[in-house]
Amino acid sequence: PNATTAARLNRVVCVASANVGYSKAAKDTKVLPSGLEYDAVIEEAVGRSDFSLTLRMTLEFESSFPEEGMVVWLKKHQQMINDEELSELMLVETAFEDYVDGAWVPITTDVRYAEEAEAVVQAVITTQSGQTAGRVTTEGSVEDAKLGPVGQRGRIILTYRCDRLYAYREMGLGSAPSSRTLVPLALQLPWAAIDNPASKCALRASVRAPGGTTFLDPQQHVLAYRDLQRSLAGLRAEPEARMQCAILPEAAPPAPDGSVGWQLQRGHLPPRPTAILTWLSVPDVVDNSWEEVSAALPRGTRAQVMLARGEDSRLLRVPQLGGGEAHLVRCHVETEAPPRSPSSVRVHTDITITDASGSTGMSAVGHGVSVRECFNKHEERRMLKRLEAIPKLRQAGVLLDNDVWCQLFVVFDHGIRAQCGIESRVGDLDEATVGRLGRALAGSDSGAASELESSGKGALLASWRQLLQAMRGMRAGGMTSFIAGANAAAETYARSVKQKYQAAELTAYVNFDTDGGNNCGPCYAAIGKLVADCDVVQGHVLGVGAWVDQDCAAKVARLLKGSSSLGLSFPDDAAADDLFRQDL
Questions:
Q1: Which of 144, 169, 382, 419 is deepest in the core (most CB within 10 A)?
Q2: What is the pLDDT of residue 26?
Q3: pLDDT, tens digit, for every residue of 106-124?
Q4: Cα(371)–Cα(382) distance, integer angstroms
Q5: What is the mean pLDDT of residues 438-462?
Q6: How many CB atoms within 10 Å of residue 380?
């Protein structure tokens, strides 16, 4: 559980070496930096469970001939953040510093065009002006930086931005699914032999992440670290991208803004290819940085006026004419939904695509029955909870009497093992009827069944009993093909819903339940087609067991425009009810 692969690992490859020229002495090639600093900040991005990276890489070079002017020239290949090419590490800012009179002095320029920048650099380098210049150009896929002339030491500071890091849902090891996301990040280091004088290098690395973030415990998750080690050992890469060892940094003191961090400092380069590994567990985002200013608001359309507090309040100050200062406020407006026409018809379908591959025939830990039987019980409970919610949605005006509520179940292994479903008119599911149905279906209440028969709802009870009987009889089968399940659900939806209710407003919600991962071909295109063709507004992935492919579950959840819940065992009733409310 919670393992990842070398291909998915977010990795930053450092500039391994540079060429250095002097005013009189011969040029040095493949010079290692005398100082290297990484400052990485991981932040929440726009999408659900998405994270971005801002990285500042500081490269310091020390002259072997301090009495002469030194020019540093280095090249760095542009890189994707991982081997799956999820996102590019983009150079967004460059700064140069010269060490003068015991302090670092920024080299500030205001040069608009590349040709003029190159001319300035060449003029400074080739004349005895006493000035220092720097420039960075990008040609093809190579970033080319030049600094000089400097005296004893010089710095090149490169700031990068990655809009989307690879991240995946953490699997809970207890009875409740985890509400955290894992973000693995490796910062590659240059290396040199112990007896090489160039191995003396001041290394410093800092990684900061949102408050509440923790380090994936190497003792509790030793198998995840072992699997990553094996994956890295088999990685075929260029020499500067190889990684034979990993260093885990130590926790740093919390920052005033609430973020947490890890840091590492060393005085020498490692003797073999090494990276600083930060495998972070980030909690789901809860925005508590705003407080409500207005209270008693009218019903219907609702507006919340909020004033920033904490660090945000400082950033949201604005100057006023005459020297005063004001604060920006945030206004969040929730407009009242327009009333639906009584003659309109909405058809909502809950689609459950559920895994019945051979592995679901294994015994579920702590339950005494097979995984497939646990899925049967969980899906039955989910459906009955939704049935209980229909009268409340009807009373709230979300659903009208003429609306239709459909349930569609697709059970798959490497093919389709079973399909079943039911559709009900919302007007037939009043509070009294639903209460009697619940008692008759869950507790075999003969009195409730008799009341349904006498009120003319005998056919409704029979159809629900038939559906539950089919669900309770699902058994494990063969291999696992998410493609088969997605394609069958799309075909059945098109036939039984889309063609039948062409004039109605159609929506669908997908629950995808599995104990493993797809092993029968590429499945993401099929999931994407299901979402596009079946009016899917959102979905959720439930993964149970140590064999769940967490990467696959995260990608399927993203395609469904929803989230995933992963755990080694099935959620208990309280945790399951939280998931059901989230679905609603």
A1: 169
A2: 84
A3: 875 433 334 444 554 554 4
A4: 16
A5: 88
A6: 16
Distance CA 210, CA 258 (A): 7
What distances in angstroms separate CA 51 from CA 42, 45, 54, 251, 331, one per listed residue? 7, 5, 10, 20, 26
Report the DSSP beta bridge partners of residue 158.
57, 94
**Residue 525 contacts residue 503 (beta carbons within 8 Å):** no
**What pLDDT is stored for residue 292 in this prediction?**
46
The sign of the CA dihedral 454, 459, 460, 465 is positive
DSSP tag of 40: E
Q: What are phi and psi of 33, to 5 degrees?
A: -65, 150
- Contact by Cβ (8 Å): 17, 31: yes
Cα separation values, 538 from 504, 541, 559, 560, 568, Å: 19, 11, 9, 5, 24
Which has the closest alpha carbon to 151: 203, 102, 204? 102
Average pLDDT, the chain: 84
Within 13 A of 121's CA, how many CA atoms are on the CB side?
19
Which residue in 362, 307, 366 sits closest to 569, CA to CA? 366
Report the phi/psi class of residue 212: left, alpha or beta, with left for phi > 0 and alpha for psi in -120 to 50: left
207 phi and psi angles, rounded to 5 deg: -125, 125
Instruction: Fill in the DSSP letter of residue 428.
Output: G
**Structure token pair of residue 563:** 């989230």
Burial bucket for residue 490 (CB in 10 Å: 0-12, 13-18, 19+): buried
Q: Rounded to whole angstroms, how far apart are CA atoms 58 and 145?
A: 13
d(CA 178, CA 176): 6
C-alpha to C-alpha distances, 480 to 289, 354, 467, nearest whole angstrom? 44, 11, 24
* Cα–Cα distance measured from residue 534 to residue 489, given in angstroms and rounded to the nearest whole number: 9
- Residue 580 β-bridge partners: none
Written as six digits, the tokens of 466 are: 């038939």
Rounded CA-CA distance 494/534 in Å is 7
Distance CA 365, CA 367 (A): 6
| 298 DSSP β-pair partners | none
Rounded Cα gap, residues 168 and 9, in angstroms: 11
Could you tell me if 504 and 576 are in contact, meaning their C-beta atoms sit under 8 angstroms apart? no
Q: What is the pLDDT of residues 17-51, one digit of tens each?
A: 788 888 788 888 888 889 999 999 999 887 777 89
Give the per-residue pLDDT at 489: 97
* E-only strand ranges, 151-258: 153-162, 168-169, 180-189, 200-209, 214-215, 245-247, 250-252
Q: What is the DSSP string of 249-275?
A: PEEEPPPTTS-EEEEEEEEE--SS-EE
- What are the tokens at 523? 């499945």
CA 536/CA 558 separation, integer angstroms: 13
Which tokens go with 526? 């099929």
pLDDT digits (tens, 9 = 90+) for 155-206: 888 899 999 999 999 988 876 667 889 999 999 888 888 888 888 999 999 9
Tokens representing residue 487 in the block: 């394609």
What three-state secondary structure class fits 511? strand
